Amino acid sequence: MSYRAAGPLLLAAAVPVAAQERAGPPDARAPDVAADQPLIPTKPEQRVRREPLRIRAALGPQLQPGFPGNDSLRLTPMLNLSRARGDAPFRFGAPGDGNAIALLRRGAAEFGPVMRLEGRRRADDLLVGLPEVARTVELGGYAQTWTSDRLRWRGDVRKGLGGHGGWISQLGLDYVRRDGDDWLVSLGPRVTLADARYQRAWFGVSPEAAARTGLATYSPGAGVQSLGATSRVIYALTPRWGVQAQAMYQRLVDDAARSPVIRRVDSRDQLSAGIALSYTFSIR
After folding, report:
1. Which of 89, 78, 86, 87 is nearest to 24 (CA)?
2. How buried is residue 218: exposed, middle or buried, by Cβ count under 10 Å (0-12/13-18/19+)?
3. pTM here?
4. Which of 112, 121, 129, 192 could form a disulfide with 212 if both were Cys (CB 3.0 to 4.6 A apart)?
5. Computed from CA positions of residues 86, 87, 92, 95, in that sequence, does the dihedral angle turn out positive or negative?
6. SS in 3 state form for the chain?
């Protein structure tokens, strides 16, 4: 197992979860107003006092593959940022959701843009002769909804800018149990789909690469790239201090799994895991 510095991957490990925490079912605890309660006019100069902003920051180590199909894990910091106002609980976000912004909310559903970063494969990471794949910024959109307090459905579609240059989509379901911010446990399946361009970048072998590496020529098509699962655990030790752990597993299937690159030098199984200590503070 090799451990390498993965500078830009720090953002990929850190930023996505900061946005994930802002995604969850709406807080429906608004007080009821009696029908005979008089309405008191509000002066124009009066302003509604906002509740203090709470920030939860978590930092620790994590291990993750450097790129799709990589059987070597890289040690990187795990940084999670969450925010909430007043006594409202921090909203749920799962590992791998990406950096998402909810632009439109309708009841328990929300929609918005999403961004993720994909790692780089250097020319000598696997076999000398395989082409390099540069780091990729993946931009797209997501949609999610809660069908109960415990079930979240989510899907996204992203386009690679630079790097692999392909399209990729992730579909998932999360079962979530929690007691406010005291503890949270989530577990859910994931399905990842990719177009042919994405598949060829990571798992294909061109005639030129075949001549240089001795691998058979291979041109994978679009389809399901992997099946997997993700999980997250949060536990508050005190009102300020807590611990977090997260894990993701993916198994390459179909054309990706049949690639000569995977069969000879890489792995169908992709696992990442991290643990962190968290601290919560307020800003007024």
Report:
1. 89
2. buried
3. 0.78
4. 129
5. positive
6. CCCCCCHHHHHHHHHHHHHHCCCCCCCCCCCCCCCCCCCCCCCCCCCCCCCCEEEEEEEEEEEEECCCCCCCEEEEEEEEEEEEECCCCCCCCCCCCCEECCCEEECCEEEEEEEEEECCECCCCCCECECCECCEEEEEEEEEEECCCCEEEEEEEEEEECCCCCEEEEEEEEEEEEECCCEEEEEEEEEEEECHHHHHHHHCECHHHHHHHCCCCECCCCEEEEEEEEEEEEEECCCCEEEEEEEEEEEECHHHHCCHHHHHCCCCEEEEEEEEEEEEEEEC
Pair of tokens at residue 277: 């200590």
Tens-digit pLDDT profile for residues 27-77 = 444 444 433 444 444 455 455 677 889 999 999 999 999 899 888 899 988
Q: Which amino acid is at 86?
A: G
Provide φ and ψ at 204, rounded to 5°: -80, 160
Q: Shortest CA distance to 120 belongs to which of 74, 80, 156?
A: 74
Domains of the chain in sequence order = 53-283 (2.40.160.40)
Contact between 168 and 155 under an 8 Å Cβ cutoff? The reply is no
- Amino acid present at 152: R
Please name the residues in contact with 183: beta carbons below 8 A apart, sequence gap of 6 or more. Answer: 233, 234, 235, 236
Under 8 Å between Cβ of 71 and 266: yes
- Tokens describing residue 233: 């655990």
CA distances (Å), origin 116, targets 127, 136, 189, 235: 27, 8, 19, 26
Tell me which of 39 and 147 has the higher pLDDT. Answer: 147
